[in-house]
C-alpha cells in the first residue's frame, strides 16, 4: 500500500486547470521528487495534499484512507441543535414576530397587578402559533432542514484542513520560508510540538509539576532535532539572524517536530550555494533513514538526480513522465518541456 496515493487529482482556479488528472503513488521509505518547469503545478499538488487547497476532482489518500476529521456523536448533536434553533427562528418569523410579541408578552403583562409569568407567556405564544399551524409547520420543517444541512456542510469542509493533515502524519516546508522570525531557533521547533502539549491554559499558567516535566521533555526533543539538522549551537539565536541556508534547515526541523510519517519539502535548496546543497542532500538521506518518506519539489537537478528513488515530471499540470532518474532524464517529453522543441523549416 502506498504511503501517499493521488487518484485523478485535479485542481482548477476558475477556467485555469493547475493540475489535471494526476495519478501518483509514493511508496514507504522512498525519496520521491516532483519536477517540472515553472508554473507546472508542483506547489499546487503540495497545497492539495496538505488541504491548503481543496481538490476540484479526484482523491488524496494517505496510508490507504482520506485524512479527515472523524465523525462523532458531537457532530450529529450539533447539527440537530442548529436545526432546532433555526426552525424556532423560522417559526417566529413566519407567524409575524411583532404580533407574537404583543400577544404573548407586551399586552398581557403590563401593570403592577399583572406580573410576568413564563408559563402563561409560553402558553399564549403556543396558542398564537397554533392558530397559524400550516404556516408554522412549513417554516419549522424548512428551518430545520436549512439549519442542520448548513451546519453539516460547513463542518464537512472543516473535516479536511491543514491542522488535521498535520495531526494525521503529514508535514511540509514552504517555497518561501515561513519561520517565526522574532522567536529563537529553539522556540520555532517547540511551536511544531504544540499538539503534544496536553495541558490547558490554567494548568500552564499555574505551572503544575506535570506541565514543567512535559516542557522539559519537549525541549530535550527539540534540541535533539536541532542537533540532527546541525543547528544545536545556535538554538538561542533569533530565527531572522540565521543565514539563509540555516533558516531552511530550521524549517525542516520544525516540520520534523510534528513527528510526521510523510515529509513534503518544497524547493528546500532554493537560494543555497553548492556546499549547502550538498549538506542538504545528506540531511534528506538521513531523514529517510529515520523511517520517513520524503516527497520533494526541486529545481536543482543535481540534487534531484542524486537522491531520488523515483521522479515524476509535470508540465502545465499534466504528468508527462515518471520513473528513475536515468529514465526521466532521457525521456524526449521531458527534454522538450525543459529545452523546447526545435522548429523545422
Outline the structure in words.
This protein is of the alpha/beta class and 345 residues long. The chain has three domains: 107 residues, Rossmann fold (3-Layer(aba) Sandwich); 85 residues, no CATH class; 83 residues, Rossmann fold (3-Layer(aba) Sandwich), CATH 3.40.50.300. The chain is 49% helix and 17% strand. The strands form two sheets. It has a six-stranded mixed sheet with strand order 5-6-7-3-8-9, sandwiched between helices. Strands 2-1-4 form a three-stranded antiparallel sheet, with helices on one face.
| Average of per-residue pLDDT values | 86
- Total helices: the number is 14
- How would you characterize the largest beta sheet? 6 strands, mixed
Cα-based radius of gyration, to the nearest Å? 29 Å
> In CATH's first tier, which class of the largest domain applies?
Alpha Beta
Give the number of domains.
Answer: 3
Produce the secondary structure layout.
Elements lengths: L3 E10 L2 E11 L4 E5 L6 H8 L7 E6 L10 H22 L2 H10 L11 H13 L2 H25 L4 H7 L1 E3 L12 H8 L8 H6 L2 H21 L14 H13 L5 E5 L7 H16 L3 E5 L3 H7 L2 E6 L2 E6 L1 H5 L2 H8 L6
Parallel strand pairs: 3-7, 3-8, 5-6, 6-7
Antiparallel strand pairs: 1-2, 1-4, 8-9
Helix pairs in contact: 2-5, 3-4, 7-9, 7-10, 9-10
Quick gist of this model?
The protein has 345 residues and is α/β, with parallel strands linked by helices. It has helices spanning 42-49, 73-94, 97-106, 118-130, 133-157, 162-168, 185-192, 201-206, 209-229, 244-256, 274-289, 301-307, 325-329, 332-339, and strands spanning 4-13, 16-26, 31-35, 57-62, 170-172, 262-266, 293-297, 310-315, 318-323.
Amino acid at each position: 500500500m502506498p504511503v501517499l496515493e493521488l487518484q485523478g487529482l485535479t485542481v482548477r482556479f476558475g477556467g485555469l486547470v493547475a493540475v489535471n488528472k494526476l495519478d501518483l503513488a509514493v511508496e514507504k521509505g522512498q525519496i520521491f521528487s516532483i519536477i517540472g518547469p515553472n508554473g507546472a503545478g508542483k506547489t499546487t499538488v503540495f497545497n492539495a495534499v496538505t488541504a491548503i487547497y481543496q481538490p476540484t476532482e479526484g482523491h488524496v489518500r494517505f496510508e490507504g484512507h482520506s485524512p479527515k476529521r472523524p465523525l462523532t456523536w458531537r457532530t450529529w448533536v450539533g447539527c440537530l441543535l442548529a436545526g432546532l434553533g433555526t426552525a424556532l427562528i423560522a417559526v417566529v418569523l413566519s407567524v409575524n414576530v411583532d404580533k407574537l410579541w404583543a400577544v404573548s408578552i407586551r399586552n398581557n403583562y403590563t401593570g403592577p397587578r399583572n406580573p410576568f409569568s413564563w408559563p402563561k407567556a409560553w402558553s399564549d405564544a403556543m396558542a398564537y402559533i397554533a392558530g397559524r399551524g400550516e404556516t408554522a409547520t412549513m417554516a419549522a420543517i424548512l428551518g430545520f432542514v436549512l439549519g442542520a444541512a448548513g451546519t453539516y456542510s460547513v463542518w464537512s469542509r472543516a473535516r479536511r484542513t491543514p491542522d488535521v493533515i498535520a495531526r494525521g502524519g503529514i508535514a511540509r516546508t514552504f517555497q518561501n520560508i515561513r519561520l517565526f522570525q522574532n522567536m529563537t531557533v529553539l522556540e520555532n521547533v517547540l511551536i511544531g510540538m504544540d499538539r503534544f502539549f496536553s495541558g490547558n491554559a490554567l494548568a500552564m499558567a499555574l505551572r503544575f509539576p506535570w506541565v514543567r516535566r512535559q516542557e522539559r521533555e519537549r525541549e530535550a526533543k527539540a534540541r535533539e532535532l536541532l542537533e540532527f539538522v546541525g543547528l544545536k549551537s545556535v538554538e538561542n539565536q533569533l530565527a531572522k539572524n540565521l543565514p539563509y541556508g540555516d533558516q531552511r534547515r530550521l524549517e525542516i526541523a520544525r516540520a520534523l517536530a510534528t513527528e510526521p510519517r510523510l515529509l513534503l519539502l518544497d524547493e528546500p535548496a532554493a537560494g543555497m550555494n553548492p556546499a549547502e546543497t550538498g549538506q542538504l542532500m545528506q540531511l534528506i538521506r538521513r531523514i529517510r533513514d529515520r523511517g520517513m518518506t520524503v516527497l520533494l519539489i526541486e529545481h536543482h537537478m543535481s540534487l534531484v538526480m542524486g537522491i531520488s528513488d523515483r521522479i515524476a515530471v509535470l508540465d502545465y499540470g499534466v504528468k508527462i513522465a515518471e520513473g528513475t532518474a536515468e529514465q526521466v532524464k532521457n525521456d524526449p517529453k521531458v527534454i522538450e518541456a525543459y529545452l523546447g522543441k526545435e522548429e523545422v523549416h
